[in-house]
Amino acid sequence: MYLLKYAVPIAIIVFVISNMYLANSQPDVSADNRLYLSIGAAILSGSISLVLFRKEPDEQPDPHKKGDN
């Protein structure tokens, strides 16, 4: 669930912004193509955020390794 904490909101924001940008700046793009492009951008950005915002595992000290005391 930690991964979806960032991936889903980023994907939604990218979908909304890309759809608004295509509607305002590129009026010759049809509505269905605009939808497909926005969905593709949302999926791509969500998958990139899954990779970049991975939670690093906590480093546990090795119980078999002797310390340098």
Question: How is this structure best described in words?
Answer:
The chain has one domain. It is built from 2 helices and no strands. With 69 residues, it is mostly helical. It has helices at residues 4-25, 31-52. Helices cover 64% and strands 0% of the residues. The longest helix has 22 residues, at 4-25.
Number of domains: 1
Q: Level of helix content?
A: 55-70%
The average pLDDT score comes to 87
User: How many helical elements?
Assistant: 2
Main beta sheet strand tally, sense and closure: none
End-to-end distance: 40 Å
What's the total number of strands? 0
The chain-level structural class is mainly alpha
β-strand amount? under 5%
Q: pLDDT under 50 segments (min length 5)?
A: none
Shape: rod-shaped
Radius of gyration, in angstroms, nearest whole number: 20 Å
List the helices and strands in order. HH
Transmembrane segments: 6-23, 35-53
Organism: Chungangia koreensis
Protein name: Histidine kinase
Keywords: Membrane, Transmembrane, Transmembrane helix
Structural features:
69 residues; mainly alpha; 2 helices
Secondary structure blueprint with pairings:
Elements: H1 4-25, H2 31-52
Helix pairs in contact: 1-2
